[in-house]
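PROTOCOL LOG
Step 1. Enter all chains and additional molecules of the complex.
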Amino acid sequence: MRYDGRETGEELRQLKITRDFIKYPQGSVLIEMGDTKVICTAMIEDKVPQFLKGSGSGWVSAQYAMLPAANATRKQRDIDRLKLDGRSAEIQRLIGRSLRAAVDLKALGERTVWIDCDVIQADGGTRVTSINGGFIALYDAVGTLISEGALRRDPIKNFVGAVSLGIVDDEILADLCYHEDSRAQVDMNVVLTSAGEFVEVQTTGEGRAIRRDEMSKLLELAEGSVRQIIGIEKEVLGYRK
Amino acid sequence: MRYDGRETGEELRQLKITRDFIKYPQGSVLIEMGDTKVICTAMIEDKVPQFLKGSGSGWVSAQYAMLPAANATRKQRDIDRLKLDGRSAEIQRLIGRSLRAAVDLKALGERTVWIDCDVIQADGGTRVTSINGGFIALYDAVGTLISEGALRRDPIKNFVGAVSLGIVDDEILADLCYHEDSRAQVDMNVVLTSAGEFVEVQTTGEGRAIRRDEMSKLLELAEGSVRQIIGIEKEVLGYRK
Amino acid sequence: MRYDGRETGEELRQLKITRDFIKYPQGSVLIEMGDTKVICTAMIEDKVPQFLKGSGSGWVSAQYAMLPAANATRKQRDIDRLKLDGRSAEIQRLIGRSLRAAVDLKALGERTVWIDCDVIQADGGTRVTSINGGFIALYDAVGTLISEGALRRDPIKNFVGAVSLGIVDDEILADLCYHEDSRAQVDMNVVLTSAGEFVEVQTTGEGRAIRRDEMSKLLELAEGSVRQIIGIEKEVLGYRK
Amino acid sequence: MRYDGRETGEELRQLKITRDFIKYPQGSVLIEMGDTKVICTAMIEDKVPQFLKGSGSGWVSAQYAMLPAANATRKQRDIDRLKLDGRSAEIQRLIGRSLRAAVDLKALGERTVWIDCDVIQADGGTRVTSINGGFIALYDAVGTLISEGALRRDPIKNFVGAVSLGIVDDEILADLCYHEDSRAQVDMNVVLTSAGEFVEVQTTGEGRAIRRDEMSKLLELAEGSVRQIIGIEKEVLGYRK
Amino acid sequence: MRYDGRETGEELRQLKITRDFIKYPQGSVLIEMGDTKVICTAMIEDKVPQFLKGSGSGWVSAQYAMLPAANATRKQRDIDRLKLDGRSAEIQRLIGRSLRAAVDLKALGERTVWIDCDVIQADGGTRVTSINGGFIALYDAVGTLISEGALRRDPIKNFVGAVSLGIVDDEILADLCYHEDSRAQVDMNVVLTSAGEFVEVQTTGEGRAIRRDEMSKLLELAEGSVRQIIGIEKEVLGYRK
Amino acid sequence: MRYDGRETGEELRQLKITRDFIKYPQGSVLIEMGDTKVICTAMIEDKVPQFLKGSGSGWVSAQYAMLPAANATRKQRDIDRLKLDGRSAEIQRLIGRSLRAAVDLKALGERTVWIDCDVIQADGGTRVTSINGGFIALYDAVGTLISEGALRRDPIKNFVGAVSLGIVDDEILADLCYHEDSRAQVDMNVVLTSAGEFVEVQTTGEGRAIRRDEMSKLLELAEGSVRQIIGIEKEVLGYRK
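Step 2. Run joint prediction.
Step 3. Record the structure below.
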């Protein structure tokens, strides 16, 4: 029996996605994975970073932040320390890479999709929840472009879904809540496509190193978990493909 | 007939307050004034700024920010410009002063209540909505201290409520939505106590200057509007006094 | 009898304006209101902020700072904390709005007038003294443009004048010195035009809230005080209109 | 045949480690992996971060930077942009986690070992080369503490070694040089212990997603490569255990 | 005949020193060297930098800045660029070293004297004028301590005076105005004690290098010029020694 | 007998210059002056600062930094304090001016040569060692332009060389090591051309002031020392002129 009442290591928390949560951006969701809640928005800008100018290619850029009250202890805003939190820097690079893997950037054209992920309540797994919510927002924003006739073909190449996993008390668990995460010996975040291929694998054995057989089990569990998550994503979106 | 369908200049938009919106802070609300939506949280810290150390007095400190997608055009995060937005600096000072006017800081003891106001959707009046939401969060946070037996007496001296007003096409309006606000000749924000006394008046006639008789009408309209708002606040809180 | 020897609440301190205080800017004054001394300069730049490019309109932008030794306790420079002081941010926005209310920005053409207000000695009322001094500097800078034949018509729409007021020991006072200001229950800053209309009203009842009748008396006192101040401004300038 | 003349995908570039490269720090190396050159230093400070004070535990903190001329295009210094490069932030967190996995922090006592990795010439694999060089510097710094009698037992739990891998033109390669790296479809960095267990796995399929069988081959190749690297580390150190 | 009417290369501009220019600091002057005008203040703080704590020694710390309108072109404030101007950094280090050379830091006791030099109008020689003005402010601040009985002996060891020199059109000139300075091939700033010994010599031959015989003539001219300046300083102060 | 075994005050430490130390920049050296070691690189950029655009003139811009472990006590990186170290600011301005004195900027054309000096081990004299190493890197970078046929004439006007000197225990010494430097009463840095003319003289008598006869001896010793250093520079370069 897990801390929050789940009965198996494989069981995921309830995933709830509310689309069109904010009225201005082309895509926006409130995504909830258990008690973790993130507002993800996607806004389209008609220009690209310097290195892509004139290339015909678009870009997907992600930012990640937490409200000060999203955790048990108040987190000082980055602007008060004049520094982007190192952890946030790491996470938003992960989100950006993961979502770009879902998009044919050529088909997007010279546009940037800005994905903003703001965690309003954190209970473990905020980065993977941001990827899942960011994907829906991105999908909707691209859908707006399609329905406006601005794109010749759909730039979404495949769905992506993400899950966190870990080893706690030598047991492999999926979708850790904060209480489990804070005691985890091993921490893993995995992003997969709808074809079941790996986009990102980030594993940290800061507590203890990971045996090869555990690694295989973790990856296998990730595959199954993300299959479920992408299933829910497709359902929520009434999948257009 | 007003832009969003209201029929008179006095009519306020619907005010909706959802308490306990975030699970960690001692007080938290989602406050909605029409389409303006702000998450306001109150967290208590057991220390005070340098200038109050050893004074026996507490403090209320406010911060105000906007999600990048809260407006029609994406707003770059402060940390990306390494500067707190000047408008945010001005607003959070206003929120702080307004809420401190509601509290007997001696009765609070040497504690800081951190009020964080994060606008998730902006449609005019974000600063007054933050004050109203911040007050509820503050009230609930102080309530937690009281129920824990940490305070000898209730430090809430009086309710505060806030409203925005303006002159648009030479007509006086209460609670401007963004469309009205962007065309206003005169802009006013007023904070009052439950005793009907003024805490803050901020008027700007950048479009055109304000005649004395208009000033009187604006202040009168503010009194009536805030009376309604404080009425709703009391109802929502099941007023403990 | 007031702290600095003034005999009534209405009495203003001596206002002294020295024009052409610095040789480079198109307009510059040393303004002294009692012991409060501010250097105000106006420099014209032949470009405008991004949002005005191509609009044909000009802009007036203000900055406010204090020398470290302007107060009894040395104030660390902003650059040493890497943050613009929140109070300065608030004040310079007030100065900018107040001075823009004096100018027909269309008539100014695509130019920015930079108003720099540097307090060299602070004894209460630095923000209103900055507005008064900034107006004279602005007037002189615009005068330079006129005499150079660069403008078709005078962009100065009206004079503006500003005064601080407060309630100290339940008594209403105009033009508070620092000693009075530090004990004030209520603090007000008012900017009016030469037509006696209100440009800015900023009132704070952080010490105690303000009754409606007090509000009226404060506004009335402000009207009279600013009338005197604008009188002195006109005299100093040998009013060109 | 690979770009730099290596004959197989498994072949590593020459690894050269010069100990005691800088005279002040307790540990320091110049590490060269082909043309990638990094100065890694380890300095011991007799205090720990706030969250460890009084815990009896020590800490290992890493920083990563590049000289402006380490790449073909000059890289502006972080201080000129006033921002830590996001990539550097990500990398130094990886180095810190990897090296902490080599140390029994309790046995280290309340000390911080500062690992500074400064890339003086970059030709692919700078992060893994930093981990390998940082480990040697850390080992030597800890050795100084041991020889001074400051530690009761050796806090080094195990060796760590790191390697980069990738898929280029659908071929799996170990230890990519810059030319290979810039064309890689898949990018992986793996850190293992001397016991052959995984400390960190970071895989990115930004170019294309990774099949499960490729993932297995990559991990297997990582195991073999790091075994060689740790072999060289032990030789260089005349392994004290 | 020089640009500003002086008849010889040795002739100095008029030096005017107004003491007690600002009412709060223990020492303050407005110093004018021709059209160069600097406000120099000295404030005493009862603590010292970290490296002097417990040493019994005091410190003199200097800061240098310019008002935006002090030059023909408006200078953006440091805080707007978030960087201390490199030239200011260099100058304030020079001022600090020069003034510390005038003080027996042991006799000062564990106090810091903060010297703030704010250039309100620049016409060449602002750094040496700051040193001269800073010395008077320092002397007066120390005099306050002496008259309060806070010091057992006078910490002023000797007077210091400073002058700028240069080579313009191959002619050696003292006390360059801006017009001369902007065309100088060689630029020199020299600080001497009242005993005629050198405290600082800063020479730059960026336009052309300096022959040994020119160097001797420059140093000789510096000696004579500073002798005059220290003469004026003594007169202004009614020299207490 | 000096601290590091040198027998006379005139004796210089061994000067060792390794060219082509980094493969990417057009010029790069590892320069060692005794135990002081600096990596100096020169990279050419085909644009110039704003104030030179369209002038036909080039620029030489220098940056100076220290690795955290270059001294006995770890030095926090500038980016962690968000401020360029004041001492670094001063030094890099000195390096820039010194190297520009070696170059005919018109002959360089509209290019910037970026000189980066990164001290990897500091044992006194890092700024003069940076100038000497920077000159070699600059010479080589310019040589690359010449050999590519990009320049019509050699922009190197003359060699420059630099040395540090000081007065320790009333004795005049050349090329102080850290141990001597930390006890010096007087500190001097001198840059000369191959024609024996002075480019920069920076003397500080913070410990005690300098007599005129000492000043002459210091300058004379500087001339002889730099003559030796330029001799070595010419030898290392197989002087092309």
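Step 4. Note key features.
The mean pLDDT of chain E is 97.
Residues 212-237 of chain E form the longest helix (26 residues).
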